[in-house]
């Protein structure tokens, strides 16, 4: 990678890691919210706090995370990536400050809305920047994915560790600070955003400076969604639904399994260490194994992201998509029976799931670059993450509702079906090629 490639990759790695740090810390807080709050008081109506209602609140924030990607993609084609990434970081930091000050579930919902709106612009901005500015695109996507997974894993891990010595509001306030500092760095970074592409037309589509009008937006959207990109869009929607459906309530699902009983902290650490941490003997503080299993599953996804990025340079992405989603379907079918076999078999399946969940992401990111013109790359990634995080956000509400009215077996059967739809889309793409 040359100096420009490295400068861009450093910025997007930092921003991507923070986006997913905040995203995946939320399920750790969900477990606390389910026990701390009883009602959601909207003034004109009140609702009990259940997995279904909390799932709706989380889906609201996650949904905006996806829905904002499309307008974010349009804007990035007009003003470039740096300013959007800087604004994204400022907004995310502010949202977690608000979360730390939240007295009730209504303010929690507002904080998640602010986070979703702020974070939504990152993926079209960051991925457009890689696709147009980094000459070693596959390697850039691999490192970008690794950073995202470090955030995905370290976010809940850091949150879980901080929760040992502080209450959840304080933890949220602490987590908000790094994004504010990163925004300062983003505003000062220097690089050429379009070093890897030339201003040219591609396939009759605009490929110069983005969308100028509503008519142009409709024309370019039609151009994208009537071609092979439509199948890529199906793939990314399936990815988002599976991703959010399996992860939103995973700590809650694990909590009741054998081997995940809470462990008193005082049985693990000597009294001198407990005293240094401010933990009193007999205070009843416990480690929650499900939080660390969840964080470990996400961290191991680093290997999936790196492998997926490298594979995108070495094999047809269509075959990679079909094969990786077939693996996800098989893992969904196996999850419930394996979870009853004990912690060891479940740890193995969890590691495989962590890799498989994330190997698909660089593959579909690369497929977007393969099937779209450079001049509207931001719009293309905007549609992509509208599918991944907008439509995909429904996976959280879907999972919460299935768990409230059915069981885990029904949830994982549904997820397997979603993965098989993506397998079919990948096969059709491969046949077209």
UniProtKB/TrEMBL annotation:
Pfam families: MFS_1. It comes from the Archaea. GO terms for cellular component: plasma membrane. InterPro entries: MFS, MFS_dom, MFS_Efflux_Transporters, MFS_trans_sf. PROSITE patterns: MFS. The chain crosses the membrane at residues 7-34, 54-76, 108-129, 141-162, 168-186, 224-243, 321-340, 346-364, 385-405, 411-430. The keyword Transmembrane applies. This is MFS transporter. It comes from Haloarcula mannanilytica.
